[in-house]
Design goal:
homodimer; 0% strand
């Protein structure tokens, strides 16, 4: 019984890893679609998002049934609850990638990102997707200090986000208010993607130790 | 034992109601601070937000201990899990109100919102705070159809949000890219506040029935 339960927990971890991989792929494709004004790719990201929503519901149902049938306590209880929490956050990461793809779709055939900001958004996409890659490994094989590690990576996202905001808010920004408004939102989608990834890592540390990690 | 457990669930509902009341107050004060460029009020909202974070942690700990000690099943299990979910969403509503206050603080002594958009933001603040008021009642005395009810109110938030975005994206918007970028973000904070409120209502319906509500 106990062994079966731990097998179920491992299975939950693998489901979360698959979700992280989907979120990473969505982020990479959304960024490519945004920078290349690629309508077909943007639409792919948008339709793939529904799968992540389904996977989140499956994780949650699996966690419910473990709680109802096994009534876990202590660390096992924290792990099951963390799985529902993380599934929700990873689904949100997918939503944010989909919002980026939606901006690409909305501005097509125009480019949403002016050439002068292409490098910054390319890097935002790489760093953010890399965070989801790292979580895919951590949810199946947690290591101590996941929160500190992801928080460190997230400082790069925050720096890039701040640089983009500073540029589009400059008095000499030549691309007009519509582009400024659109890019403020897109940059925020990257920033929030990073924040969700950090909160997943934080919850993994909490599940392992019962202590809220600080850095 | 069973009676004590249901007393504990009621207590959890009251904690959530207090959180909703704080989120409603934060939204009202943040909107006043934003429209009046009131630095002191903005700072009050920002410092009050920490209390909501503490209350969320208390709700979560209370829910953990009910799960560990009582191992509820079926509807009782759904209600306990819904409480942790709702606590997190209501805390996020507080964060979003705090972001609005932060914009007021950042732009002080300037006004963040041009006069021509003051009515739209006033209404956004009223409707959003009203959603939190309604949730405060629903978490202690759930009624069927909460999701449909909040979703209906949220269409007003969505319409106002779309109108603000259209205005700041217009070629003749005279307040420059910085204001456009800032208002795109502020308008989104209201829209997300509404979304969180809808998701709380949806989860309350699910907790009551075990069915995900649709409209």
């Amino acid at each position: 019984m106990r062994e079966a339960f731990h097998g179920d927990l491992k299975q939950l971890g693998r489901q979360l890893a698959t979700m992280c991989e989907s979120a990473a792929a969505a982020m990479r494709d959304a960024t490519r679609a945004l920078l290349a004004a690629d309508l077909r790719l943007a639409e792919q990201v948008l339709s793939a998002d529904a799968e992540l929503d389904v996977k989140r519901t499956e994780c949650e149902e699996q966690a419910y049934s473990l709680l109802a049938l096994q009534a876990p306590v202590a660390r096992d209880l924290r792990i099951v609850l963390a799985a529902t929490y993380c599934a929700q956050k990873i689904e949100r990461m997918g939503d944010l990638a989909a919002h980026i793809a939606d901006t690409a779709r909305f501005t097509h055939p125009e480019h949403a990102v002016p050439a002068e900001l292409a490098d910054a958004f390319t890097e935002l996409g790489e760093v953010a997707a890399g965070m989801a890659d790292r979580l895919a490994a951590l949810v199946v094989a947690p290591v101590a200090g996941a929160f500190a590690e992801l928080e460190e990576i997230d400082t790069r996202v925050d720096r890039l986000h701040a640089a983009v905001l500073a540029r589009i808010s400059a008095a000499d920004f030549p691309h007009g208010p519509q582009t400024a408004a659109s890019l403020a939102l897109v940059a925020r989608f990257y920033e929030r993607f990073g924040d969700q990834a950090v909160s997943v890592a934080k919850r993994l540390d909490f599940a392992a130790t019962g202590e809220t990690p600080t850095i």
